[in-house]
Structure formats: C-alpha cells, structure tokens
C-alpha cells in the first residue's frame, strides 16, 4: 500500500482546524518559541536599561529592532530555530543563539553575554508559558465562552414566559419555563467565567534552584528580588517569590480545574438541549444542503451537541491530567512537566471546538410552543403538589380539618393520568377556605410556574 503524504495526526489540526486555529498562535511550538524570544529580548532590554554590568541603555531604534524578532516572528525564525536545535539538542539554548544572531546583525555584540544572563531554561519557559496561556485564554477561549453565555442569556430572556413541563428524574414534574432553565446554565457559566478571567498568571525569575545564587555572585550589591519582581510584572504577570527551579504550576492547576468545571457545565447543557430536541420541545432548523442521515432523509440529527459532548469529555480528561500532574516536581526539578505542558493547546482545543459546536447548535434550534402547551395539558396530575400545599396552609390557618393532605393527593395522582375535570371535581369537594379553593380552580399546568419568568432577571442583559 502506498504511503499517504504527511497528514495531521490530530483532528484538531485536520478536520476541525478552522474552529481552533486561533489557539495555534499561542499554544503551538512556534507560539511557545515566540514567547521565549520575547522573554529573552525583554530581559536584555531590562538589563541594559538599568545599566547592569557596565552596559548602556539601548536606543529606541535598537529596542524596536530587537522586539521585532518576537513581534515579526514567522517561518524564517521557525526554520532557523529548527536548525539551531538540531545542533544544540536544547530548545531554549536554540532561542538564546537566535537572539545572539540578531544582536550580531544589529552590531550589538558587546552585550551578547547578557543574553540569557543568570537565567535557567525554566526562567524563560515558565514566563513563556504564562504569556502564551494567558493570551490564549483571554484572546481566544474566553471570547468564545462568553459568546455561548451571551446566546444562552438572550434565549433565556426570549423564552422566559414559555411554560414547559419539568421532568425531574425524567418524570412529569412541577412546570418551569424554558427561559428559566436556560438562565440556570447561563448563571452557572457566568460564575465560572469570572473565576477563569480572574486567574493569576504567576512567573518566577530566580535561577537554577530559585535562590538567586548566580545573580548574587555576579553582583552582590543588586537587589535581585526586586529586579526579578520588576521584570516579571513588566510582562503583565504576577511574581512568585518562592519556587524551586520551576514555577510551581499551581496557577495552571487552578485554571485547568476551572475550565474542566466549565466543560462539565457545558456538557450538562449539551445533554439537556439534546433531550429537549428528542422530546420535540426544540425544533432543529435544517442547514441547506446538509444530510442528517445517509439512509433516512427525514432526519435532522443533533450533531452539534453530540460533537460538543465528546470534545468536552476529551478536554476535561486532558485538563484533569494536567492539573493533577503539573503540581508535582521531584525535589527541585524534574522534566515531567515539559512534555505535559505541550498538550495544553490540545486540551483547550477540544474545549474550544465544543464551544463552537454549542454556539452553532444554539443558533439552529427553535422552540415549539404548541408542543410545550400540549405536553402541559396532558399532565394535570402535576398540580397535586399545589393542592396538597394549599391544604397544608389551610389546615395550619384553621380553615381545614383534612388529615394528611399529602396522602390524600398521593392516592389521587400517583402513577395516574388525570385531567382538568378530575381535579376540578376533587377541589370543589375539599374542606378548605373559599379564597384558596378559587385559586386552585383557576390554576392550570401552564400557569403553575411560580416566579420562573422573573428569575431570569437575575442574569441581566449585558
């Protein structure tokens, strides 16, 4: 059999690439290397800007030319780093040599030895990962996540008054509204969104074992802790003062646990929407030219929500693994995190793909109000809760002598289908006050929704 041309092994880089391509700018190997270059360059600019070790501040033109190595990072730099790493067998050392080449081209060989000065590879790596993960979350993942929340919020308001039969344990239950049920998901997701948006992205820059030992030997008079803090925060990160060779990755574990939590809420949403479609509560809007089934032409399958389920499960499994493994490093350093962190993009990619499917799926459904009404009208027995609760209140108020109202309604309704006429007859014979009786006689399954529409207002509209 003839071998295929080189193919992407992951579906995220193949079939689904268009949905996740934005993450590649940050969480690919090239994105990581661009961030490494940025950190190396900014450290040079910091050292020279503070006239460390006899250096002089660079000119604005020199700074711009150095920063362009990261800002304009592209295929030539990717190819050159591959050549350098083939020789060095070390990815961060290859980045250092690339920066030195730029210094040589700019006539700045006199500061070449300040490249990667007093830095261990993990000083560069931890900052590069913090920068790339932060950018991927804030520039790509969160906007899509917020778009799903916004669509849910809009539909919650749209369907706030549309009564529907609830189905606790899959059985007919006290009615709600479709809008209130969607609002529940929007509210849950909004809380997690705020937690994710508030993530601390920590960084360290303190040498081989986090002690500033080499720094202090090089310049005993410098306040290296202050320098480290200034440098890390200048990158838009939070400084971690107490580390081993590595930044301890706790912020990553916290972030990935929160995203996995968001994934699981989204999974719950996908399964509920799928069920509402199965019940007929939502009609799917066919896409022109799309095929639902290869043999059954009538079908419009809820594939957006099924695809989302599978990708959310994959994402959560990877995020759980990342969160569990990254917080452990043997003694002052081992390299288990190196391979692990290279899968951050895969974990977020499956989540992003799921978000894309959910957003598109929510845009392709429409509420069948007639079916909701018919379903409610076929289940008058659900008013048993209302009747027995009113009886309890009447007994407590001294307007009824009925013993065990719950048992009375259980005998009437449990496991039975009864209609409006049955309940009207039952209520008319009850020993309760006139006002209470009138309220019950006016009640229908479609109006027994409490304050469900008003609960949607807790979401707001922003």
Chart the SSEs and their pairings:
Blueprint: H1 17-20, H2 24-27, H3 29-49, H4 60-71, H5 75-88, H6 91-105, H7 121-158, E1 163-166, E2 173-177, H8 178-197, E3 202-203, H9 213-218, H10 224-234, E4 238-239, H11 250-279, E5 282-284, H12 303-325, H13 336-341, H14 344-362, E6 365-367, H15 369-377, H16 384-396, H17 405-413, H18 420-428, H19 434-442, H20 452-455
Parallel strand pairs: 3-4
Antiparallel strand pairs: 1-2, 5-6
Overview of the molecule:
There is one protein chain. By secondary structure, this protein is mainly alpha-helical. The protein is 60% helix and 4% strand. It has a two-stranded antiparallel sheet with strand order 1-2. It has a two-stranded parallel sheet with strand order 3-4. The chain has a two-stranded antiparallel sheet with strand order 5-6. It is elongated, with a radius of gyration of 31 Å. The two termini are 58 Å apart. GO terms for molecular function: N6-(1,2-dicarboxyethyl)AMP AMP-lyase (fumarate-forming) activity. It holds the Pfam family ASL_C.
Structural class: mainly alpha
Beta-strand content bin: under 5%
| CATH classification class of the largest domain | Mainly Alpha
Radius of gyration: 31 Å
Q: Could you say what the CATH topology of the largest domain is called?
A: Fumarase C, Chain A, domain 2
Mean of residue pLDDT values: 94
Query: Helical content, roughly?
Result: 55-70%
Please tally the β strands and state the result.
6
**Biggest sheet overview:** 2 strands, antiparallel
Order of helices and strands: HHHHHHHEEHEHHEHEHHHEHHHHHH
CATH architecture title of the largest domain: Up-down Bundle
Flag low-confidence runs.
none
- Domain module tally: 3
The total of helices stands at 20
């Amino acid at each position: 059999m003839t071998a295929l041309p080189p193919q992407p092994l992951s579906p995220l880089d193949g079939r689904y690439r268009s949905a996740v391509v934005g993450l590649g700018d940050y969480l690919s190997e090239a994105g990581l290397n661009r961030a490494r270059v940025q950190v190396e360059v900014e450290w040079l600019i910091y050292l020279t800007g503070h006239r460390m070790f006899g250096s002089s501040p660079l000119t604005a033109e020199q700074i711009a030319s150095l920063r362009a190595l990261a800002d304009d990072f592209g295929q030539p730099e990717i190819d050159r780093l591959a050549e350098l790493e083939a020789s060095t067998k070390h990815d961060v050392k290859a980045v250092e040599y690339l920066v030195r080449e730029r210094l040589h081209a700019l006539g700045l060989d006199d500061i070449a030895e300040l490249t990667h000065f007093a830095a261990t590879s993990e000083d560069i790596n931890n900052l590069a990962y913090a920068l790339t993960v932060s950018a991927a979350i804030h520039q790509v993942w969160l906007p899509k996540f917020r778009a799903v929340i916004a669509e849910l919020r809009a539909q919650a308001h749209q369907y706030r008054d549309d009564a529907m039969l609830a189905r606790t344990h899959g059985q007919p239950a006290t009615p709600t509204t479709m809008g209130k049920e969607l609002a529940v998901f929007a509210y849950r997701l909004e809380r997690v969104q705020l937690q994710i948006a508030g993530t601390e992205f920590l960084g360290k820059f303190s040498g081989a074992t986090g002690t500033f030992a080499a720094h202090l030997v090089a310049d005993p008079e410098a306040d290296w802790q202050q320098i480290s803090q200034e440098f890390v925060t200048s990158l838009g990160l939070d400084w971690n003062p107490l580390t081993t060779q590595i930044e301890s990755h706790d912020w990553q574990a916290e972030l990935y646990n929160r995203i996995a939590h968001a994934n699981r809420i989204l999974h719950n949403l996908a399964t509920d929407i799928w069920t509402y479609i199965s019940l007929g509560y939502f009609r799917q809007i066919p896409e022109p030219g799309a095929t639902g089934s290869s043999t059954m032409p009538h079908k419009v399958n809820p594939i957006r929500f099924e695809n989302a389920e599978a990708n959310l499960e994959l994402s959560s499994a990877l995020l759980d693994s990342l969160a569990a493994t990254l917080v452990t490093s043997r003694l002052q350093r081992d390299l288990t995190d190196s391979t692990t962190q290279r899968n951050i993009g895969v974990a977020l990619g499956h989540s992003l793909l799921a978000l894309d499917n959910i957003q598109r799926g929510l845009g392709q459904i429409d509420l069948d109000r007639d079916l909701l009404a018919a379903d409610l009208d076929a289940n008058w027995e659900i008013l048993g809760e209302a009747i027995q609760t009113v009886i309890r209140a009447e007994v407590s108020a001294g307007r009824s002598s009925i013993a065990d109202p719950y048992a009375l309604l259980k005998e009437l309704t449990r496991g039975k289908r009864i209609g409006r006429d049955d309940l009207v007859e039952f209520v008319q014979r009850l020993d309760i006050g006139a006002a209470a009786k009138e309220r019950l006689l006016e009640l229908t399954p479609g109006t027994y929704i409490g304050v469900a529409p008003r609960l949607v207002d807790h979401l707001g509209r922003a």
